[in-house]
Amino acid sequence: QVHLEQSGPEVKKPGASVKLSCKASGYIFTNYAISWVRQAPGQGLEWMGWNSAYNGNTNYEQKFQDRVTMTTDTSTNTAYMDLRSLKSDDTAVYYCARQSFLVPSTLEYWGQGTVVTVSS
Amino acid sequence: IVLTQSPGTVSLSPGETATLSCRATQTISSSYLAWYQQKPGQTPRLLLYATSTRATGIPDRFSGSGSGADFTLTISRLEPEDSAVYYCQQYDSSPPTYTFGPGTKLEIK
Asked: 3-state class of A12 per DSSP?
């Protein structure tokens, strides 16, 4: 079965960077893209970007364009999201998610989330 | 495209019917409109895709409708376990982009 295992919680100071991981199992990693979605405390879901595990293509939400990098390592079936110049309002749960096989326009499988806290 | 959802919060009793709205700032393909349920402390769960098709394991109490820029999620015969936040989501294919609405919180009294 499809499983996305995310890395553990992070605490960072403003201005720092954080790199999160998402290890996939139960499917052919290179057949699907991984999206990253975040959720600030008490807030809604915010899509950050998309990264193809097939060819490495990316598409980032405009507000993150300048400070996010999403990559995949096909040797370990792991996706990464690097967010730089952290601010306090980057405090959130960060999810990786995989599109559905039948309906690529939806995100059917989700990691458990990584809590990132940005505080001085 | 920006999605708005209404109401922000709705409180209903078991057995009643909830009608949740999702409105887009422009026409979107009904094939690319989905709904998710998120309970406290849990990850989002796909409910409906292509406006009205239920995902695997979703009971028929959940139904969807709409077209153009206006879409609706209807939950009939409400149960206490339906308490959650419901998000609509639309998709653009070129380039791949997912957009979520702000969510509607459904409380069961």
From this structure: strand
CB contact under 8 A, A44 and B85: yes
Greatest C-alpha distance within chain B = 43
Both tokens of residue A39? 């959720």
Structure tokens given for A18 = 């954080």
Nearest to A53 by CA among A38, A69, A32, A67: A32
Across chain B, which has 109 residues, the per-10-residue mean pLDDT values are 96 98 96 96 96 96 97 98 98 92 97
**pLDDT tens per residue across span A106-119:** 999 999 999 999 99
- Backbone φ and ψ for B82, nearest 5 degrees, come out as -80, -5
* Interchain CB distance below 8 Å, B87 and A110: no
**DSSP tag of B27:** -
Shortest distance, CA B85 to any CA of chain A (angstroms): 9
Rounded-to-integer distance, Cα B85 and Cα A33, Å: 26
Other C-beta atoms within 10 Å of A65: how many?
A: 10
Q: Residue B29: which residues within 8 A CB-CB, separation 6 or more?
A: none
Please tell me which of the candidates A44, A50, A108 has its beta carbon nearest to residue B103. A44
